[in-house]
Design a protein that fits this description.
7 strands, alpha/beta, 6 helices, globular, binds 5-O-phosphono-beta-D-ribofuranosylamine, 184 residues
Length: 184
């Protein structure tokens, strides 16, 4: 039977750390990175969680990489696959195959600011509010059904770093709780 969590990362892994330090951390069965240099891999090891690296550079095409990723998911059979700072687009075949089991955290109040540079764009556009969203992964990037959101104010004098830090605090509090709810 499917159980626990697989967490996908690409870099720093601060959301992964928040997950591992929370009660749901015990349910993390594997951390998968597309980047062998991801700092989050060491965090997983510190918590005695198995790690796997699956770099697209080692595959002929995104389709082949996606198929290998799917084989790994099927081998581990997690109940939920959680993208946490995973910077690759999930190929459409896998987004479809794991629909309802794969979730992502995105640093904006979706549907506003899909894609990259969300904090910079929120400031440029004069947004009064910003935040983060946990959503199901769908074939269209950052467009799947919204599960949970947290809001923060945009303060006068904010730069992308100060705003990112405010949003990140909410990400770290929200994501472990949302995952715990989804696993119930
Ligand atoms: C977070 O802001 C997350 O919302 C976005 O990428 C960032 C990853 O940070 N998808 P980290 O690797 O969890 O520290």
């Amino acid at each position: 039977m499917s159980a626990g969590l697989a967490v996908l990362i690409s870099g720093r892994g601060s959301n992964l750390r928040a997950i591992l330090k929370s009660p749901v951390g015990r349910q993390v069965r594997v951390v998968i990175s597309d980047n062998p240099q991801a700092a989050g891999l060491a965090t997983a090891e510190e918590h005695d969680v198995a790690t796997r690296v699956l770099s697209p550079d080692e595959f002929h095409s995104p389709v082949e990489w996606g198929a290998r990723l799917a084989a790994l998911f099927d081998e581990i059979d997690p109940a939920i696959i959680a993208l946490a700072g995973f910077m690759r687009i999930i190929p459409p075949a896998q987004a479809k195959a794991y629909h309802g089991r794969m979730v992502n955290i995105h640093p904006s109040l979706l549907p506003a600011f899909r894609g990259l540079r969300t904090h910079e764009r929120a400031i440029e556009e004069g947004a009064k509010e910003h935040g983060c969203t946990v959503h199901y992964v769908a074939e269209e990037v950052d467009a799947g059904e919204i599960i949970d959101q947290r809001r923060v104010p945009v303060m006068p004098g904010d730069d992308p770093q100060t705003l990112a830090a405010r949003v990140l605090r909410e990400e770290h509090d929200m994501y472990p709780k949302t995952l715990e709810t989804l696993l119930r």
